[in-house]
Amino acid sequence: MEQAERQVRAPWSARQALAVLVAINLLELGLSRALNLATTGVWQLLLWTSLDAALNIGLILLFMRWRHQKGSVALGLTGRRWLHAVIFGLGAGLVAAAVALLVGDLLVELTGHAPEWQPVQELLTRPSSLLQTVALIGAASVLVPLKEEIMFRGFLYPALRDRMGIVGGILVTSLLFALVHGDLMRALPLFIGGVILNVAYQKTGSLYAAIVGHGVWNLLMSILAYTWR
User: Fold this and answer.
1) CB atoms < 10 A from the CB of 149, how many?
2) How many CB atoms lie within 10 A of CB 126?
3) How far is residue 51's CA from residue 126's CA, in Å, rounded to a whole number?
């Protein structure tokens, strides 16, 4: 992968990245319990999704600025060749969605068990107003990809790549990305999709490629969930 030769080493270590992500998740767990936040309603889920994204992104950026005097560019959020990254991301998202659907359907055929709906997908299957539907799809297609790509591909992957090499970094990052969603039936499709998004980032050197790809993937899945209700 020629772009990898131009990517600099991450200032933070893999241990630091994992420690920060674990700490953020523990903080969120405590916060959700303290505030008794439910995600069973549309506006409650949107509130928590927004808070979740703000906490993850804000605390990662705070750590980078505090410990390493680095900003968002170090996460791959660079404006260089942004159009190329966006176009590459569109293609990666379409491929990730198609592969995830095919693998998911194959697993259902082999096991006889369907994966659990994600909260956004579950709400999209229920009757709701146009505003709620648009807000849910927007959150799934913008907020969630932005948060997860900064966490996994922007923050964690470069540190793992420096420690394990490109292939090892991609595989471990994608495995953690799949497992953190908490559904074993969806783990393999998510793992493969994560690999595709990681390759998009590695090839372009821009996290925008992975964010756009993830957004396209989630958008298509959300539309399918809405049309299947």
Assistant:
1) 30
2) 10
3) 24
- Nearest 5°: the CA angle 27, 141, 160 is 55
Contact between 107 and 116 (Cβ < 8 Å): no
In the chain, the number of structural domains is 1
197 contacts: CB under 8 Å, gap ≥ 6: 92, 96, 149, 153, 210, 213, 214, 217
Element (H, E) at 56: helix 42-68
Q: From first to last of its 229 residues, what are the pLDDT tens digits of the chain? A: 444 445 678 899 999 999 999 999 898 888 877 776 656 688 888 888 999 999 999 999 999 999 988 989 999 998 778 899 999 999 999 999 999 999 989 998 888 887 777 878 788 877 678 898 999 999 999 999 999 999 999 999 999 999 999 999 999 999 999 999 878 888 999 999 999 999 999 999 999 999 999 999 999 999 988 887 6
Q: How far apart (Å, rounded) are the C-alpha atoms in residues 103 and 59?
A: 35
CA 104 to each of CA 97, 171, 172, 180, 212: distance values in angstroms, whole numbers, following the listed order: 10, 19, 21, 17, 22
**Measured CA distances, 44 to 29, 54, 166 (Å):** 16, 15, 39
Structural domain that includes position 52? 2-227
pTM for the whole thing? 0.92
Question: Contact at 8 Å (CB) between 61 and 193?
Answer: no
160: which residues sit within 8 A by CB, 6+ positions away?
Answer: 14, 17, 168, 169, 172, 173
